[in-house]
Model the fold of this input.
Amino acid sequence: MTATDFLTGTAPSVHPRSAPERIWNVVRLHLVDRRTYIGIPWLIVGMAFVVTIFIAQIVGFTTGGLGTPDAIEGQRYSWAVLSPQWYLAIVGVQAISFGFPLALGFGVTRRDFYLGTALLFVLISAGNALAFAVLTQLEQVTEGWWIDTYMFNALWLGLDGFWVDLFSFFVMQLLVFFIGASIATIYMRWRMPGMLVFWSALAVGLVGTVTIITFTSSWPAVGQWYGAQGIAGIFAWLLVPAAVAGFGGFLALRRATPKN
Amino acid sequence: MTDTAVRVSGLTKKFGAFTAIDDVSFTVERNKIYGLLGRNGAGKTTLMQLLTGQQFATSGTLEVFGASPVENARVLQSLCFIKESQKYPDSFRPEHVLTSAPWFFANWDAALAARLVDDFRLPLMRPIKKLSRGQLSAVGVIVGLASRAPLTFFDEPYLGLDAVARQIFYDRLLEDYVEHPRTIILSTHLIDEVSNLLEHVLVIDEGRILMDQDAEQLRGSASTVVGKRTDVDAFVAGRDIISRDGIGGLASVTVTGLSQAERAAARAAGLELSPVSLQQLIVQRTTSITQEAETKTDAWSASA
Done:
């Protein structure tokens, strides 16, 4: 078949696309509007940084000068580094709630859609992890961007070195995406009854766990276990809920139907 | 390859206690334009969702291009389903839809899409959320036409489109269909507007197929006889009457299947004969079903 045939012929049947091609096209579909996964999150990071500069000045004023160990320690409690995460959790929800009906309208199978969406989450998580881990390093090297302002070197980041930052941020980002996506998937599959069952089960599960730990006086043991894991260990454990959300979402979506 | 695009047999879809599609069987031939007609809630959208693998059948079999469409990448790649209620991501602009659509429709014609954007005066950079109802419909219509999918579904694609835009849609559909034959299934309420496009008509009511007929045959299958009540009554006695109307001494009765000789006889008797539009025919059929017993349906199909 020549190129002209392809353009002008009556094309009795579509040239089928291979599975990797189809899955990659789903990734591209999610990214066709670059603002969603890249533009807006980094805009939020930029805004948070501006706010952080002001906060740093306040912290410096109250602790008697920026750049002192006290001031650096004080800035560690800032959640500014996680500021895009709330938005990205919503993006995870919308990847399913908007992406699924759109993809089905484009003739994508549920399997290809989910695999493409999961691949996108892994890629964006890897990209964000690399960026934040590098920024944390740069922030340390430049001693707070030469103005003693620390935003990335905060919470658990910057404590155990580059590789732990990279791994922990990757897991955290993946968890945020997959939790958002799996909640949207439960809704897509079971609608309102599914939401009621899910949230009640979650609430009962959490309260039940706390009750059991309290009644067995296990809080010191829990605290000890938590401390023994270290940062890398804790985030390794967080891979479990991320995987549960990821695989559970796949199973639920296989029988889901878009809303009319 | 056979000439069949869709083969449905004993298809049933229930939502809880509600039966949306009730033991439906029909086939769709390749390279024809089908009209899927019926009232609101008749099951048109559900049927299209079943055919495109978006819904799961409760029972029965369903083949599109020789296989079940459910989770079948080969089949689904040959389909395009444009529905009135299509959702798009909040931040999307029409340009995002038209940029990504070619990744999923191998036969996509970018030149046709660009021409349609001009025809419908679609603002590509305006957020989809801010488009008017008609502009939103135009997005779907453009994707549906430019995709050139071997089997294209349009589910009431015209919502909010003005008369001019609807005419553009019908004209472009026909033009492109002639050059690139494919199977098109169009569901609509505006039966008269698309009457000339349709080659085959499927009428669905309360989840059942009421009519499955060649459009040309259907158009010639009934006539309205108008004249003095006594004359009309005499002429239609013993015939299959679809509907009856009258004022004072005048009567207007729609009957099925008149032969040339019978037409001549009617004219000789001083009666006026007028053709029945597809819309009138379908309105009369679907209302009579709700009013009368279903026995008449059999007489209707037998005479067809």
